[in-house]
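User: quick one, sequence for these tokens?
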């Protein structure tokens, strides 16, 4: 079922049918209430007639309605009254021209009023036995009230209900059709956009929608997802282009060395030098490909999460790089106590190694690298501070882009810090550079959610 049809059906047709059913039910309740009121009116009239039926001076039988001063006012809706003698023969009737049974069965002792429905005459009748105070013989009082008034009232009620239901249904249908068309247009715009995204067109956002409802929220979500996809695609394309450039550079160097070695006869020393240069470029290619594989694996491979102590991971990294630091005359300092967190020990250790290795490469001889454990609120952080040249504020985000290197004289692939940020992101954390308190060197912060 199409959206417009569904909205029209459940937003207009079903409520209209429900309204009609409610009117019908209300009509039946109204009819029953009027019938009950009619029975009560007959009982009230019977009570009045029972008191005055034999109150004439000579105790003659008579009907009170015949002498009522309000006779003309009540005649249109007053019940038909008739009195039958002990033998069941008709004695009195009001109005005079009313059609009533000429005779009733000899009256048994009807102690209580009896209400009956005459389907043929479409009327309600009441029978009650009254005893003459002097003769002590039973007389039967019969009151009859037609259902015609109730039927006429119900016809007016049904007509009014039909008109109201029709008007309500028409208005509801028009409003629902307008609303359904608007919703359909908005959703169709989103559908066209999603189809364009599926074809790879990420240059346009979905149509603007300021309605402020759930569809508007959906549009904003789709727009955000489109921007994210575009950003990821652009980053991937830049990454591929940068990777191709980085791979081409050592290959070109290797090709140049080999071409020069083959251009003329070379001495063993010259050949050894060419081969050494080629091996260095092969090492560079190996390191670059290894980093590329690490980055690709980090973005797709599942993490083996467990409870880890960040200080223990930092201590093991310090132990691994202690010899390299001493060879460069650099002192490694680890500060802070145990900090529990949830993470993958192997990748977290890899991140700490990358940061510590960068700090060692950039710190001058005789400098100090401090690794601190910090806790703030529900977050734990590993902070690495060095005494190197530092990173300018403008470059503190750029260094996390693949292949971006601030100091070109320092050897590296330009993939270490992007890998560190990817590891932090996969753990629900962050990686960033901050202004060092001393104003010298660099301050790196690797933040993770604190365990518990």
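Assistant:
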């Amino acid at each position: 079922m199409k959206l417009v049809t569904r909205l029209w059906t459940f937003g207009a047709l079903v409520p209209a049918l429900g309204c009609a059913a409610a009117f019908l039910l209300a009509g039946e309740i109204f009819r029953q209430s009027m019938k009950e009121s009619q029975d009560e009116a007959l009982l009230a009239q019977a009570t009045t007639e029972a008191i005055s039926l034999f109150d004439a001076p000579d105790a003659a039988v008579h009907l009170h309605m015949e002498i009522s001063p309000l006779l003309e006012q009540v005649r249109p809706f007053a019940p038909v009254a008739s009195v039958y003698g002990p033998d069941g023969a008709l004695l009195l009737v009001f109005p005079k021209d009313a059609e009533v049974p000429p005779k009733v069965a000899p009256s048994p002792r009807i102690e209580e009023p009896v209400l009956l429905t005459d389907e043929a005459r479409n009327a309600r009748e009441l029978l009650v036995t009254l005893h003459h105070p002097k003769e002590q013989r039973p007389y039967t009082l019969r009151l009859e009230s037609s259902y015609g008034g109730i039927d006429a009232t119900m016809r007016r009620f049904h007509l009014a209900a039909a008109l109201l239901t029709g008007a309500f249904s028409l208005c509801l249908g028009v409003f629902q059709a307008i609303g359904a068309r608007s919703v359909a247009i908005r959703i169709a715009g989103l559908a066209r956009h999603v189809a364009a995204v599926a074809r790879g067109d990420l240059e346009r956002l979905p149509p603007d929608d300021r309605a402020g409802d759930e569809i508007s929220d959906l549009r904003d979500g789709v727009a955000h997802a489109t921007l994210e996809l575009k950003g990821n695609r652009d980053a991937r394309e830049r990454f591929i282009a940068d990777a191709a450039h980085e791979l081409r550079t050592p290959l070109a160097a290797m090709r140049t060395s080999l071409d020069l070695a083959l251009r003329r006869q070379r001495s063993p020393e010259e050949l050894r030098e060419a081969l050494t240069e080629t091996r260095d470029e092969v090492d560079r290619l190996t390191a670059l490909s290894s980093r590329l594989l690490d980055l690709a694996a980090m973005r797709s491979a599942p993490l083996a999460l467990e409870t880890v102590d960040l200080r223990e991971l930092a201590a093991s990294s310090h132990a691994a790089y202690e010899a390299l630091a001493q060879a460069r005359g650099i002192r490694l300092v680890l500060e802070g106590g145990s900090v529990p967190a949830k993470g993958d020990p192997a990748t977290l250790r890899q991140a700490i190694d990358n940061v510590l290795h960068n700090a060692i490469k950039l710190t001058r001889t005789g400098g100090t690298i401090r690794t601190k454990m910090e806790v703030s609120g529900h977050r734990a952080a590993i902070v690495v501070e060095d005494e190197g040249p530092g990173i300018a504020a403008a470059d503190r985000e750029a260094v996390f882009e693949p292949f971006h290197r601030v100091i070109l004289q320092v050897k590296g692939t330009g993939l270490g810090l992007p890998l560190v940020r990817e590891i932090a992101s996969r753990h629900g954390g962050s990686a960033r550079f901050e202004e060092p308190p001393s104003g010298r060197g660099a301050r790196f912060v690797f933040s993770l959610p604190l365990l518990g």
